[in-house]
Amino acid sequence: MSKMDRRDFLKTTAAVAAAGAAGLTVPSELKAAASNGEAGWQWDKAVCRFCGTGCGIMVATKDDKIVAVKGDPEAPVNRGINCIKGYFNAKIMYGADRLTEPLLRLNDNGEFDKNAPFRPVTWKRAFDEMEKQFKKYYNELGPTGVAIFGSGQYTIQEGYVASKLVKAGWRSNNIDPNARHCMASAVVGFYQTFGIDEPAGCYDDIEITDTVISWGANMAEMHPILWARVSDAKLNNPDKYTIVNLTTYSNRTSNIADMEIIFRPNTDLAIMNYIGREIVKRNAINWDFVKKHTIFATGTVDTGYGMRNPNNPHVTAKEKQTVKKELAKVVTKEEGIALSGIGKWKAGEEMKMTHRAGHAPFFHWQITFDDFKKAIEPYDLDYVASVAKGDPDESIESFKAKLRKLADLYIDKNRKVVSFWTMGFNQHVRGSWINEIVYMVHMLLGKQALPGNGAFSLTGQPSACGTAREVGTFAHRLPADLLVANPKHRKIAEKLWKIPHGTINPKVGSHFLKIMRDMEDGKIKFAWAQVNNPWQNTANANHWIKMARTMDNFIVVSEVYPGVSARVADLILPVAMIYEKWGAYGNAERRTQHWRQQVTPPGHAMPDIWTMTEFSKRFKLKEVWKAWPKQKLPSVLEEAKAMGYSPEDTLFDVLFNREEYRKEFPWPDPIAKNPGTGKMHKNTEAAGDGREIMGEDGKPFTGYGFFIQKAMWEEYRKFGVGHGHDLAHFDTYHKVRGLRWPVVNGKETKWRFNVDYDPYARKNAKPGEKFAFYGPLLKTIKIGNLQHPIKEKGKVHLANKAKIFFRPFMVHPEDPKYDKDGYNFWLCTGRVLEHWHSGTMTMRVPELYRAMPEALCYMNPKDAKNIGVQDGDLVVVESRRGKVKVRVETRGRNKPPRGLVYVPWFDEKVLINKVCLDATCPMSKETDYKKAAVKIYKA
Asked: What pTM does this model have?
């Protein structure tokens, strides 16, 4: 054993870890070999850097480097198993081109020049230029002239600091996370339906249910550990446990599915309404549940598609062919049928998008069951099959049989059903609608908020729930479901943040895509991207890249590698990666998990909290809390003085360096002791980390002297305690493998709204009732018919009730079926198993790069033959917005039907977002990356 080489050692330790996770007996000599090889290692629990599953991992360090990663056998999410990306959590940190010092565009005279090359600078020089440029634009345009691109990959504390800096400090709401690209439609669905965000169920549903319906999720590649649990449940009960994969192209999730349904893009709404109609026709409604706990509702239809105004000067002539539908469109024959129950629009008529702006797309009202029944009546099997069949080579009878079987599975009283979805629902021009009506199906049947029964939204990013949603780093949100437009909510936040009343801007900020559009329109001129790659991940990328490099603005990108966004920036700030800092994530089942800092960041890279808090030292209250007439923001300096602040105080003093933080959260803290070795973990922000880092003042940074991450956590948790968003204390999370909120009296909640499991449901439910949908938002609505509310009927207050929505099917604005300009293919984008988002990290892991070195154009073999190409040939994929070259693959894991191609977006050399349409759901503002019309030809 003493002669064991590194490869054999790694195999041995991996085998021992895997056997342990599986509960198998391990030979003593193998245990000894693994133990000897790990001499000097320090293990600690942490969380995986990828996706919203929230797998627990164990991280081993030695000599201030991460030397090994393995699945945490005590983690209830993944039970000791990792996916292929999870096993490379360490390698993403040690790429050869890791950014380790600030880089600023400087000319030969040492002056900032937007057209100059990048040159290394000190942190002080970086902050000096950043302050100069920020204040120039801030004073020119006011608080709405600056913005932060945030992230669902922030740690919870980072997101809290960012939101506090922007909203309480700069008095702007222009902060929005890339979670806008992945979860915003799910959020609107939760708000509109339940009045509170995030799923009722949890991952335990996978083993408890006997029916899994996957809608546009491809769980096998996007959530592989959850799919492993689904697969295991299927194998343990193959006759009863049933899996259905609804998708626009065949993928790996279909491999063990009992039924695959290939549907035409955008027609999931029609299929869902068909199921609703079948529930009604078969007298399968659970009336006890429906009458006690729900009402029926509908809303505005003529809402546009979240595109630019076609008269905007930046819209090209080709783009205008699609974008003109933002203002009006002609109702198609199939839409005429879909809308016929409403009785307002007929085929051939023009639908003017009169409810496309402001709150109009959200406007909804109560209707009767008879209205609901009338609205879904047109969605019979023949009609839905005719519009929804997505594979031209499948017979209509085969497709009808599948739809009937799908309805049978949902309606079967002896079946528990869980509906899972991800981007197929969310990245959708009607994403909020489809999120609403999946609950319609479950609530009609009474199969919601029960173990093994429920509609379950899966998160895309590791903390899209914990940071983007719960912390409120969206342009319209504050922590714990509070909203910036609500004066009572602003007052709560101002009190907890100890800032003057009236500080927070009441106007909702610009969402992610609108920040880009506002920059192109000259309304925003300073942007800071954090934990994010917006110039690669935003649709219609040609516009934004050109804007970044040619217009009057200043762009800061905090990054670890030189990706697309870093290369178009004016200033690059090198930042610490996940295990180089303290942090926490919140996953898709409401589980919050914390980790300790494991190693020191390389070079001069620093944590995001540090870059924000250091930059906050550059602002005096008199510069930011003064009056801003254009934004109608009054001065709050006099109230600030009354609170004991001086106009000369900095935002750092007021927001992040308060005396009570220093007193209540001293460093060192016993929780920083490693539970295995007793050694103290580092805390770069609290005490420095031994490197010669110069702070924003040019002096050596030796730490803030208190546990800032803990201080921010304990302040943040006050927002949710007692309001259905309860979180545990900081120290608790370092002793457990996560807790699912609300955490009340130390106990987590598995199933919300159910009195058997949820203390808030018990508190709010009427005597003898089993459910209480206690979310407070949007619970007072008007009453009307299918066309509009009726003033004389007044309003209704829906305490503890949820809404069953009717939402119609409508054709996508760029459906190739109706295209007259040769754009005859659907383009769908997404991820692959091996790579994470824009590939900035995973493309630098040799094993992952070799497994998937480039993005491919997955195409049906018949389509390839028709355009004269073979596997490996380069083709041009061209839309009205741009084009890229990409290699064709007809025999890969993804198998599109004729007329559709799939191109993943991880490869910056195949920057597919140049091609994608920047249409969004008008309610959620989430981009529809799944649908665009393209033409394809040999390069």
From this structure: 0.96
